[in-house]
Every structure is written in structure tokens, then in C-alpha cells.
Amino acid sequence: MVNITASSSKPSACWNWSRVLLSACLPLVLGVFTIIFTIQQNSISIANREQDRRQAIELRQQVMYDAYIKEISKLLLKPSFNRSNRQQMNYIGFKTIDVLRHLSKIQKRDVILFLYNHELIRREKPESQRVILKGADLTDVHFIRSNSMDCDLRNISLSSVLASNIVFERCDINNVAFDNAWMVGAKFTGSLMQGVRFYKANLADAIFDGNNMNQISFSHASLVNSKFLGIKPVSADFTNADLLNSDLTPKDLSATTHNFSNARYPNGSFPVVSNTQLINDGGAELIVSLLLLLNYTN
């Protein structure tokens, strides 16, 4: 005889267990949902705070930039302003160096263009009539020729600036002074560079790509790991320069118009003889230059 009571109780038991499991899972699902929702809200909150922070920085930068331009413009328009007044020029330099530490890359570029257009940092002016930018922060600043910017910076003086990763692209920087500048990772592309001075500049990891480079002074400069792509320098002065691991080949260095007195060659070798110790007698300097090059290639 079939036990009807026992068999009919099985669906009821399964249903009871299902209800128990559903009751147990519901808090778990709600807990997981709450955690996910909280994480999403936190992420949104963090993103909003970061956006607010960036906007606050940009607003502060714009306020500082506008105030600087307004103050210096007002000073330049004063009848009492005198370019030969060292105190006034030093004041402009101090204000410039201070504000550059807080500005964006584009604003830094515009400050330099502002000073250049007002002839405050031009080499053709007497040093006494120039603003000194020693220690000015031009890190990551890009000077690139475009429809809105012709990038004509001839004779600009940027000595002793801090300009890691600075970029000059399709610019006219003939006769520019970068003496004592810190320009690690700088990039010069398709620019006019006649008569540029890099005396004691740090150009480690710099890239020179397709520039018209004539009568360049790299005297006492560091060119470690530098790259000279496309057009090579013509009539360059590498006196006491450090060319370690640069990509200049023996052929590039063979030009008799270059000066490599006491320079360190790309392979790490040094000249055996210093030209400065020789008597200037006929072709003696040329002979020594060839001997030094032979030492490098061997």
C-alpha cells in the first residue's frame, strides 16, 4: 500500500527549504548591491573631487597669470619705467620666476612670448637692459609653429632656465642663448638654429631632428645620450663637451670645421693631446684634430 502522506509531504518540504534559501539569499544580494553601489558612489565622489581640484587649480593659475600680465604691463607703461634701471628689471625677473612655478605649460609659454615681444629677454639688448630668468621653470613647455603662432624667437635669451623636456618645433631660434640651461630631454625639430649657444648647458637625452644647425656652440655642454637625426651640425664647437653615448658617428665627427678640443667622444674616449697646448703653426691644429679623431675611431 502506497504511503500517500509521505509522498505528499516531499513537495511541501522542498518548498519550505526553497523559502529558507530565498530568505537567506535576499540579505546577501542586498548586501552585495549595497557594496557595489557604495563603491560606485565613492568612485563618482572621488572623480568629482578631482575635477573640482583641477578646476580650482586652473582658476588659480588663470588668476595669477592675469594678475602678472596686468601688473607688468602697467609697469612697462609708466613714464618712470627705464630699461636701464636694474632695480625695475630685477623686479620683473623676480615676479616672472615666481609666477612661472604655478602656471600651466601654455601659460608659461605665453609669459615668455610676452617678455620677448616687449624686448625684455633679447640678446641684442645690452645685458643691463635684460630681464634675468635664472632658475625660471620652463619644464615641458612647447614652442610649436602653428597658424596662431609663428614661433619666431630669434635672439631670445633663456640662459640658466630649468627646461627639461622643452620642445622647439619648426621655430626660428637663430642666435638664441641657452647658456647654463638645464635642458634634459629637450627636443628640437625642424628649426633654424644658426649661432645658438649651449655653453655649459645640460642636454642629456636631447633630440635634434632635422634642424638647420650652423655655427652652434656646445662648449662645456653635456650631450650624453643625445641624438642628432637627419641634418647634422655644421661648424659646431664641442670644446670640453661630453658626447658619451651620443649617436654622432666618426663620419659626423670628421668635419674639420668642428672643434673637439678636450671633448669626450661617444665611445667614452678622450683626446690624447689638448690643442690648447700646441703652438699655432701652420696646419698643426688640423693634424692634431685628425689624430684625435683616429683615436676615437680605433
From TrEMBL:
Superkingdom: Eukaryota
The keyword Membrane belongs to this UniProt entry's keyword annotation: yes
Pfam family, one: Pentapeptide
Keyword Membrane among UniProt keywords: yes
UniProt-listed SUPFAM superfamilies: Pentapeptide repeat-like (SSF141571)
Transmembrane segments: 20-39
Keyword field: Membrane, Transmembrane, Transmembrane helix
PANTHER family referenced in this protein's UniProt entry, alphabetically: BTB_POZ DOMAIN-CONTAINING PROTEIN KCTD9
Protein name per UniProt: Pentapeptide repeat-containing protein
Native species: Adineta steineri
Highest classification ranks of the organism: Eukaryota, Metazoa, Spiralia, Gnathifera, Rotifera
